[in-house]
């Protein structure tokens, strides 16, 4: 665990301290983050495809990485995270925490003996405003490319803010629409959120986290239909998959329902819990190892 935690800290530090704010309105910084993630994937021996596109007149790209021996003609899982930020914010939890967890999960899976899990690791650009919920959103660009590239995605795990935790009661807010379900008010858990089509994926991931014995508490929630009954569930890249009728879950620390630094200059590396992020890495690696076909 010690090496996992240190690697997570290193990734977050580079993205937040060395590079800083990573908005499409700051294309040079966004490109520096893209290059860092590309080099990290390449350093793990992954094949990396650069999916270039433009948003608001500025060039950017998604990065799609996979093990060289992965059969791309088979049904694939996606582990994805966006690497851009709201302009002017260092974006430690949102979303360097998720990028770091994705990269470290990739590293652990690279050490697996036998056939590698059929996983695409996707770093999405332009999730944040002004791109959110537009055709410029990086995950929408990726989903639109699937048919053209002959790729079949059977499910996606979208990491969205996975680094902020607290042990004190009263630190977790619960949306009114699901308050009756009895979720805990202590912000010490990771949440798995899916829509109706993703029900089985929600359960299998939640059970895998528990079965990994990583020590990270988990809560899961399935929202009927396409998630409109809980609009907050549609605020990340999972919606690009949901709207394309692809099963997907959002893996999240619940964002502004617990993190007071959300979308501010206070969203800094020192606010994150790297031990719990490391537990999530181990749980995700366990999930993919157990679900190899």
Explain briefly what this protein structure is.
34% of the residues lie in helices and 19% in strands.
Please provide a written account of the structure.
With 293 residues, the protein is α/β, with parallel strands linked by helices. It has one domain (2-290): Aminopeptidase. The chain has 7 helices and 8 strands. It has helices spanning 2-19, 27-43, 92-110, 138-149, 199-211, 238-242, 274-290, and strands at 47-55, 58-66, 76-82, 119-124, 153-160, 190-195, 218-223, 248-252. The protein has an 8-stranded mixed β-sheet with strand order 1-2-4-3-5-8-6-7, with helices on both faces. It is globular, with a radius of gyration of 17 Å. The two termini are 27 Å apart. 49% of the residues are buried.
Task: Describe this protein with a few key phrases.
alpha/beta, Aminopeptidase, 293 residues, globular, single chain, 7 helices, eight-stranded mixed β-sheet
| SSE series | HHEEEHEHEEHEHEH
Strand % is 15-25%
Evaluate the radius of gyration.
17 Å
Helical content stands at: 25-40%
Number of helices: 7
CATH architecture: 3-Layer(aba) Sandwich
CATH topology group: Aminopeptidase
């Amino acid at each position: 665990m010690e090496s996992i935690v240190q690697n997570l800290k290193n990734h977050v530090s580079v993205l937040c301290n060395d590079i800083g704010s990573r908005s499409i309105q700051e294309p040079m910084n966004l490109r520096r983050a893209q290059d860092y993630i590309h080099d990290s994937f390449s350093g793990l021996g992954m094949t990396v495809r650069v999916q270039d596109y433009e948003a608001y007149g500025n060039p950017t790209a998604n990065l799609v990485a996979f093990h060289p021996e992965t059969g791309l003609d088979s049904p694939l899982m996606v582990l994805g995270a966006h690497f851009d930020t709201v302009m002017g914010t260092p974006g430690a939890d949102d979303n360097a925490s998720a990028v770091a967890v994705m990269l470290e999960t990739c590293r652990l899976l690279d050490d697996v003996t036998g056939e590698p899990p059929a996983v695409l690791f996707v770093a999405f650009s332009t999730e944040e405003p002004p791109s959110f919920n537009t055709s410029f959103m990086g995950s929408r660009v990726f989903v639109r490319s699937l048919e053209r590239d002959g790729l079949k995605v059977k499910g996606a795990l979208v990491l969205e803010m996975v680094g902020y935790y607290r042990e004190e009661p009263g630190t977790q807010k619960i949306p009114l629409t699901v308050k009756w379900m009895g979720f805990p008010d202590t912000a010490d858990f990771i949440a798995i959120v899916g829509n109706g089509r993703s029900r089985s994926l929600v359960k299998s991931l939640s059970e895998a986290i528990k079965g990994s014995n990583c020590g990270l508490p988990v809560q899961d929630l399935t929202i009927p239909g396409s998630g409109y009954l809980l609009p907050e569930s549609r605020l990340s890249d999972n919606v690009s998959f949901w709207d394309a009728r692809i099963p997907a879950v959002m893996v999240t620390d619940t964002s502004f329902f617990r993190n007071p630094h959300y979308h501010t200059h206070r969203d800094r590396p020192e606010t994150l819990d790297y031990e719990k992020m490391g537990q999530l890495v181990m749980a995700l690696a366990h999930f993919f190892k157990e679900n190899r076909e």
